[in-house]
Amino acid sequence: MDMNDCKTVLSTRIGIVGSGHLGVALAQGLIAAGLPRANLLLSNRHSSAARGRLKKAGLEDRYADNRRVVDESQLILLTVRPQDYRALSGLQLKSGTVLVSFIAGLPVERIKSLFQPPPQIVRVMVSAPDTIAGACAIGARYGADSALVDGLLRRLGIELINLPSEAEFDAFTVYGPCLPIVLTYCESLAVKVSQEAIARGATACNLPPWGKVIAWANAVRPRGLDDRARRDYLHSATTPGGVTEALLDAVGEGLTLSDCFRAGIARSQRLAG
């Protein structure tokens, strides 16, 4: 990344709406990358679990309500659950504010509809929090051109794939970020999955031939975890009602990999409906 882009990212005031596993991982990654703590704010739904997560991560002092996040941030990362995407509705964005949506299944136009005038929005789907922590994440992006957003994502060590349309997000979600989690769950069930089987399943669902993504998934997925560590990993990587949950449920039911992919795509499409 260009050094000027690096300096711009680290001097930007960034707000994260949503203090779940992904929001906390992004916050920790930004601070580790050199973002001053004073330039970062996080909000949550005021739940005890969310506040406890912030405290455990050493981020309790960066908590703020949504209004303060909006008022003081130049770049806002949305990491809330799809059903909570209206969290910013009614808040007035400053001119020039850029929104980055990490919300699975939610189209750009749906978020734009919350604001007048519509803001600049970049939609991103990124792999699980542990890959962000390890600076080995993969992500896809679509939307407004923004050197600031791309610089931020690369600063976090996220390998980016630019998508030509939002329609490909459903495929990328099940075939990219969710794949290491699915493979780990299969291991816990003593179900062996070869790279060829993954490719066949993807082809059966008309997914793009992203061999690089399959190789990435096999490289980053944890291996040899004990039962407790595996449960913790799967819990941290799964959002209730989300796409990963649909995939794991399908695996647990003994469906073929193709049908598991289809279940994940269907969940992603329902979230966008």
Task: Describe what you observe in this structure.
The protein has 2 domains: 160 residues, Rossmann fold, CATH 3.40.50.720; 104 residues, no CATH class. Helix 8 crosses helix 14 and helix 9 runs antiparallel to helix 12. It is built from 14 helices and 7 strands.
Task: Name the features.
273 residues; alpha/beta; Rossmann fold; 12% strand; globular; NAD(P)-bd_dom_sf
The appropriate CATH architecture of the largest domain is 3-Layer(aba) Sandwich
- Distance between the amino and carboxyl termini: 36 Å
Structurally, the number of domains stands at: 2
Percent of residues in helices comes to: 40-55%
Summarize the structure.
The protein has 273 residues and is α/β, with parallel strands linked by helices. It contains 14 helices and seven strands.
Outline the fold blueprint:
Layout: H1 3-10, E1 14-17, H2 21-32, E2 40-43, H3 48-56, H4 66-72, E3 75-78, E4 98-101, H5 108-112, E5 120-126, H6 129-133, E6 138-143, H7 147-155, E7 159-162, H8 169-175, H9 179-188, H10 195-204, H11 211-220, H12 227-236, H13 243-252, H14 257-272
Helix pairs in contact: 1-7, 8-14, 9-12, 9-13, 10-14, 13-14
